Structure formats: structure tokens, C-alpha cells
Amino acid sequence: DAKTTQPTSMDCAEGRAANLPCNHSTISGNEYVYWYRQIHSQGPQYIIHGLKNNETNEMASLIITEDRKSSTLILPHATLRDTAVYYCIVRVYNNAGNMLTFGGGTRLMVKP
Amino acid sequence: NAGVTQTPKFQVLKTGQSMTLQCAQDMNHEYMSWYRQDPGMGLRLIHYSVGAGITDQGEVPNGYNVSRSTTEDFPLRLLSAAPSQTSVYFCASSMGDRISGNTIYFGEGSWLTVV
B16: distance to nearest CA of chain A, Å? Predict the structure, then answer.
């Protein structure tokens, strides 16, 4: 199972872009990179996922390096409501189904 | 469309008591799972199911039972509650397509305290 490494915490000024890095150097070819966030003990919220191409949706952009060993989640204009713990997860498969393996995540603090 | 619904939201149990956390989803998802989250930590998988009648153990299954008699429901049973099971419990569901990267939806959590 591929593991991920993220900084423990980051700060970002309100209105600026928040760039959250993630290393997943042992990722295999059919594993996806997912990003979820958890706001103050609520249920984790899906943000975005990708395989090899860069992805963008209404919440964020995901940049995956060409060798797929790292990725960056970009929140283009961070607001105070984006303060949360952000989890970078590599999708784990087994014979029976799919699971998510959560690491410690990055605690993003958006400051006014 | 309610998504993933968990009940109860809060529960206090005495050591040795048993109870069931309920989870229901209305998205016709094949995959359902239960996670627990201890203070300051990430989520850990307890049990999961890939369809009605099929369940399997996750990372921390001891002390918990599950069953999946319908596609919609995936209850988690605590057989004899222990203080170590004090945690926040999250139910999750997703489609069963293992080829594409499907979104996993989480419930809002059930806060359980065992005294």
C-alpha cells in the first residue's frame, strides 16, 4: 500500500492561494490520489482526485508530477471556512473492494 | 437524497453494555464501511462491505460486528463496550466500480463515550 507524507501544518492568508504538498513515492500505476478535508470533527469531505493528469473542479486544483511521486492541492482563493485538516490519500485496493488509508493530514489555518 | 445518515449522533455507554450504530445510504452504493477516529488522529477502518451479504475486517475490527442484509444499511455492533472504544465513528459509502476512482461519501459521525 502506498503511503503518503504531508506537512503537519500550514498557514495561509485569506484570499491567497493555499498550496498543500503530498509525497507518495511508492504509488503504483493504477492507484489514484484523493484529497479529503475534515472541518472540526465533521465527516470527511471529498475535494478532488486524479490519476496522472492535472484536475480542476469548483473547489480546487490537483497537480500531479509526471513521475506521480508527489502532488499538490491548490485552493485558489482560501477563505476562513477552508481552515481544516486536509488528507492526501492513495486509493488502496484489495480483492474485495476499496478502502482509504488516512495518515495524519495537514492542518491548514487560514488567517485574516 | 440524504446521502449517508448515521444514528445516534451522541451516545454514552457503560462498560460492558452493547449497542448498535446505525448507518443508511440512499445512493444505491455497493461499498460501505465504518471508520473510527480517536482524538488528534486520522480515521482507521473497522469493517467494510462490498455488497449485501458480504463483509470483511479492516484495520481495527476487534470488539465490533457488522452485517449487511440490505444495500442501504450497514449497522455496527459493539458487543461489550470498553473505554478504549470511546471515539468518533464514521460510516462511508461509494459505488462499486474498482476501475475508476470513485468518490467516497462520509456520514457526519457518531460520538461514543464509554465510561
Answer: 26
What are phi and psi for residue B76, nearest 5 degrees?
Answer: -115, 125
Asked whether residue A93 carries a pLDDT value surpassing 60, the answer given is no
The pLDDT tens digits for A59-88 are 999 999 999 999 999 999 999 999 999 999
pLDDT in tens, B67-111: 999 999 999 999 999 999 999 999 999 886 655 556 788 999 999
Cell numbers for B51: 455488497
Strands A9-13 and A106-111: parallel
Chain A nearest-CA residue for B59 = A101
How far off is chain A from B14, nearest CA to CA, in Å? 23
d(CA A105, CA B96): 26
Residues of chain A whose C-beta is under 8 A from some C-beta in B? 32, 34, 41-46, 49-51, 87, 91, 93, 96-105
Spell out which residues of chain A touch residue B38, defining contact as CB-CB under 8 Å.
none
Burial letters A69-99, b for 16+ CB under 10 A, else e: ebbbbbbeebeeebbbbbbbbbbeeeeebbb
Helix (H, G, I), strand (E, B) or coil at B50: strand
Amino acid at B65: N
- Whether the CB-CB separation of A72 and A20 falls below 8 Å is answered with yes
Burial class from Cβ neighbours inside 10 Å (0-12, 13-18, 19+) for residue A29 reads: exposed
Residue type, B71: T
